[in-house]
Write a structure and sequence with these properties.
alpha/beta; Rossmann fold; binds 5-O-phosphono-beta-D-ribofuranosylamine; phosphoribosylglycinamide formyltransferase activity; transferase
């Protein structure tokens, strides 16, 4: 399968995916990495792995629609079976999301449906939660609202430092995202009627 990964930042999830591919655990390959941030370290990781690393600057487009059109054009050169959002920090238009419907995944650092949006670690601490985590979900036009495929939990300790919590959550992310991608690439995972299905069972 052809996998295109969209990034904006460090790319630790991208790295984890590339590692599992090189270990033969995912029936696919990352054919391109696209970033809306030139400084994203994820682009460096892609180049080092010999993967096309593409920067498309959202600041040079007049509207979200025109940016997403350029993004789509660039992505489609790689005829992707799967689009993986891995720390891509931009809201996508409904047209874009619908175009890649049932073939776009995201990872979000919270136990969805809790804490959609930003600053999730601090919000979980402030709420007095005793656990937190990450979720992989199919992308639908509702922000962070698509059907969840897999969640991973970590405890929140007393007087929890948000950075330490983020590190533990991200460690889980690096385990779970490649696993979900491996399911998708071996045709075990699908989205049907807005539901995530693994081996034809609703998740
Ligand atoms: C992850 O915590 C992810 O859940 C969030 O952004 C972070 C990206 O990290 N959406 P990285 O760029 O993969 O290292």
């Amino acid at each position: 399968k052809s996998i295109v990964v969209l990034v904006s930042g460090n790319g630790s999830n991208l790295q984890a995916i590339l590692e599992q591919i090189s270990l033969g655990k995912i029936n696919g390959k990352v054919t391109a990495v696209v970033s809306n941030k030139q400084s994203a370290y994820a682009l460096t990781r892609a180049k080092e792995a010999g993967i096309p690393a593409i920067f498309i600057d959202h600041k040079s487009f007049a509207s979200r629609e025109s940016y997403d059109q350029a993004l789509k054009k660039s992505i489609d050169e790689f005829t992707p079976d799967l689009i993986v959002l891995a720390g891509f920090m931009r809201i996508l238009t409904p047209e874009f999301v619908d175009y890649y419907s049932a073939r776009m995944l995201n990872i979000h650092p919270s136990l969805l449906p809790k804490y959609k949006g930003l600053d999730t670690h601090q919000r979980a601490i402030d709420a007095g939660d005793v656990e937190h985590g990450a979720s992989v979900h199919f992308v639908t036009p509702e922000l962070d609202g698509g059907p969840v495929v897999l969640q991973s939990k970590v405890p929140i300790f007393e007087r929890q430092d948000p950075d330490e919590l983020a590190q533990r959550v991200q460690q889980q992310e690096r385990q779970m995202y490649p696993l979900v991608i491996s399911w998708f690439c071996s045709d075990r995972l699908k989205m049907q009627n807005n539901k995530a299905m693994l081996d034809d069972k609703i998740l």
